[in-house]
Amino acid sequence: MPSSPLPRRLLLQTLAGATALTTCTYIARRSQAAPPEIRYEPAFFTQEEWRFLHAACDRLIPQDVYGPSAIELGVPEFIDRQMETPYAYGALWYMQGPHITGPANLGYQLIYTPRDIYRYGISGACDLCRQMHNTEFADLDPATRDSFLRELESGEHQFGDLPASTFFGHLLGNTQEGAFSDPIHGGNKGLGGWAMTGFPGARADFMDWVDQYGKQYPLGSVSISGETI
Amino acid sequence: MATITRKSVNVVIVGGGWAGSIMAKELTEAGQHVVMLERGAERSTAVDGAYPTSLDELEGNFRFKIFQKLQKTTVTIRNNITQTALPYRQLAAFLPGEGVGGAGLHWSGVHLRIAPDDLAMRSTVIAKYGKSFIPDGMNLQDYGVTYAELEPFFDKAEKVFGTSGEAYTVNGKIVGKGNAFAPDRSDDFPLPPLKDVTGAHLFRKAAEAVGYHPYSIPAANASRQYTNTYGAQMGPCNFCGYCSGYACYMYSKASPNVNILPALRNNPLFEIRPNATVLHVNLDSTKSRATGVTYLDDKGDKIIQPAELVILAAFQFNNVHLMLVSGIGSPYDPVANTGVVGRNFVYQNISTTTAWMDPSVYTNQFIGTGGGGVAFDDFNSENFDHGPLGFIGGSPVWVNQAGVKAIAAAKAGGPPGTPRWGSAWKSEMIDTYTHAVRMDAHGSNMAYRDVFLDLDPTWKDAFGRPLLRMTFDWKENDIRMNRYVVGKIEAVTKAMGARRTHLGMKEFGQPFDTRFYQTTHLGGGAVMGDDPKSSALNRYLQCWDVSNVFVIGSNAFPQGTGYNPTGMVAALAYWSAHHIRMTYLKNPGPLVPV
């Protein structure tokens, strides 16, 4: 066998011993630390965009009985950090022209990279909000923010040639990625997204639980860097 | 950018996936000097599958770490011949691989053989229901090879892949509770079946109660430690749930990188060159003989690699693309109904049904193994009477839980029609992830005269070649098949005690949608057969028109089957290699007279 199982075994032994302790540490740290979004300075988003992003993410995944909000999970930081990855520059997509509009089922055909989609999308959404509500999106109450987001999701609004629904789709997709990906990418703070869903993260060894039919998995989540709950 | 001509070799293989690795192993065993050209990077499980860094769902499944990046090349897609095809700009409906190991590194591991009737679908349908049963425009064909001929090569592949499963019959004797519809085997599986996860366990009991014939899906995920034919070692699968899209850190999922390439890398007859993008196959002035290939290396130099034998072993549609841009065989024209390269392009007809169990039942969807699970074949292939139903084809139905992770769960959300965000979404999504069981009807897709591959007139790849164009849509026959089989699942979810069921079915009039993942099981386009008028390859996967070019892959399937393609591709590779070794190398030329 190749050598990879050995360091893994050592890591799990370390984690097993640390689980209970780390859970307490997590609670203490959360109560003392400032919210992460205040400490984090966005590299891509302007202050106005950053405000919009917070106000929108906060409604896409709100704080409720089921678990933390996208803001508590650090989703805006995740999205900002993603904007510096090849994905955001369109490096994963075929971007050659000509760019011709076609039926929706043939897929995305615009010239915009994810960075462009955020830049034009947020600007367009802010303008639309001022038109519709005569105020900034971030200053709306939660229920009005929800109805505005539904406008973006299923309305016919266009920001130039960028459909509002395309922008919304990216925002929602990235928000979910930020809430539920490994915290190594800046979101899922305190593994709160995984705690909410019961996903054990990088634990990746269920030999003992495969045939424990119908029973809840007993251990908490582990991240790539070794954080546990 | 220089043009360099390298020293001639016996064999050049295009593509470093399963097909290429099998051919390389077989042909080096025959003493041939083999060069393998792979357009992507070098990959190994030790690096790409390292624990814990590789267990990163964002990178693995949503930034496509070991999949093809579309930046340099893609395909264009349209639903019918009157439309303008548009580029497939973002990976979604299907996810080809790139890099050493190809799609064989990121696959899940379902390792099935083939239903014998599927190999002779045209003959079988005509014999059972008459010729008029075949709808107008359906190009139903036989493979030109029988199950009995392929059986030794299925067996050989399973022993290389370390396949886990339970046989039904071996040499005509019932030996276990395997698939009662499966054809006879010359030997048992090398490893016993994997355990059932909760969903598969519930599905097995319910399917049995309904009267179907459930079996453990044969899986190239090792249920125990295993040393294969080539001395490659596999560790037992621990159901980590990181199969599809990952390089299995446990060395449990078979891949070319783990199961074959280690036996080749130190062989002086073998050389692998990653980052080598083959631009075209070079033909001599008669266009009936290949002289080698031309590729771009990572420095941008153009390399001419002469070879006596050229094996195209790239992904299904890349093989077809290379044939078209190289002028191998006559391109298919659907209007004139002439030519063969691009003809009979097929996909797979999949839909997913969800059953929500009682809230006291935790289905632990994150526990999974890529190839494992429980299936029944009662409505696959010709295992049921199609006479009164009036459609051709079928679907296995299965719980094949490869490990659902948190981002995928979030994006899948709750039942159809429920909100996609906000508190209501959270509630439904958590309930679904925690208590639901997903099952697929994994159906066949027939071939049609107006569904095909050709070269796009507008868009080009980064190397100046026209992109491949897909003309594809779902047809009534296949939608009816899907709806019939999915209808049969309802009894199972009832027997499971589901509190809620969503039967996932194809809808009439709903076009093929490139934006949503369906499957990477594409097929056809350069199919095998007995007639050069309807097949690009003969029964040994040799080009009818250029006899020193063999084309290995699911491109050879004349129509889709209900099964995953890798098992069949591996068997066809061993079958073709066997005949190259036994016959072709001794006397190069057509193995079947034209």
Automatic annotation (TrEMBL), chain A:
It holds the Pfam family Gluconate_2-dh3. InterPro entries: Gluconate_2DH_su3. This is Gluconate 2-dehydrogenase. It comes from Acetobacter oeni. The lineage of its organism: Bacteria, Pseudomonadati, Pseudomonadota, Alphaproteobacteria, Acetobacterales.
Automatic annotation (TrEMBL), chain B:
It comes from the Bacteria. Residues 9-45 form the FAD-binding domain. Keywords: FAD, Flavoprotein, Oxidoreductase. Pfam families: FAD_binding_3 (PF01494), GMC_oxred_C (PF05199), GMC_oxred_N (PF00732). InterPro entries: FAD-bd (IPR002938), FAD/NAD-bd_sf (IPR036188), GMC_OxRdtase_N (IPR000172), GMC_OxRtase_C (IPR007867). Residues 233-346 form the Glucose-methanol-choline oxidoreductase N-terminal domain. Residues 455-573 form the Glucose-methanol-choline oxidoreductase C-terminal domain. GO terms for molecular function: FAD binding; oxidoreductase activity, acting on CH-OH group of donors. Belongs to the GMC oxidoreductase family. PANTHER family: LONG-CHAIN-ALCOHOL OXIDASE. This is Gluconate dehydrogenase. It comes from Acetobacter oeni.
